[in-house]
Amino acid sequence: MELLESALGADATARCGLATSPVTAQEAERIAPIFKALGDPVRLRMASMIAAVPELCVCEITPAFDLSSGTISHHLKTLREAGIVACERRGTYVHYWIRPEVLDALSGLLATA
Amino acid sequence: MELLESALGADATARCGLATSPVTAQEAERIAPIFKALGDPVRLRMASMIAAVPELCVCEITPAFDLSSGTISHHLKTLREAGIVACERRGTYVHYWIRPEVLDALSGLLATA
């Protein structure tokens, strides 16, 4: 199952799912942290907010949550390290965008149909 | 976004993704634990093993991991509580099977294309 090999590159056309061929221990070590990053309600909402638009300034993300800016930054860092979002600083603020190839690869991994 | 409403019922035809309409705080509280359950390498492998066959006896799962039977049971319980697998005891052993409607609903949630 070379799914995430391609997915975390750029080409997510390989669609071998969990139900097609069991993930190896090595693949699981690489893929699980991506699910873990989405496994927190705040991070899931952040990922969803970011995914719904071309890009989002951290200054637009922060007001949506009743959390300190440090906590917000920490969650965004987790999403970035998992490869779910990418970011770039422009002046004062960091701007985030989704990496659709990663979401689509996860989607393909989970699909059983 | 009524995705998981339907998904965790039976009909996963509603395909509104993260990227289509942001999840609400309430939806995130319900969905995140499912991702969290998959966010551990051992549980991800277990889910994948179970998904790859019609059903699997715990006595076939245990030998695949260098873990105590208590730890194995704990991970399986987490997958069951998240709704990813279902199970039934038959005699000495518990048998597990995947809930494809849940995997397919998560898949639909993540798909951006």
TrEMBL record, chains A, B:
Record key words, sorted: DNA-binding, Transcription, Transcription regulation
All copies of domain HTH arsR-type, residue ranges: 23-113
InterPro entries membership: ArsR-like_HTH (IPR011991), HTH_ArsR_DNA-bd_dom (IPR001845), HTH_MetalResp_TranReg (IPR051081), WH-like_DNA-bd_sf (IPR036388), WH_DNA-bd_sf (IPR036390)
Amino-acid biosynthesis found in the keyword field: no
GO molecular function: DNA binding; DNA-binding transcription factor activity
Entry-linked PANTHER family: ARSENICAL RESISTANCE OPERON REPRESSOR, TRANSCRIPTIONAL REGULATOR, ARSR FAMILY
Protein name: ArsR family transcriptional regulator
Organism of origin: Propioniferax innocua
Taxonomic path: Bacteria, Bacillati, Actinomycetota, Actinomycetes, Propionibacteriales
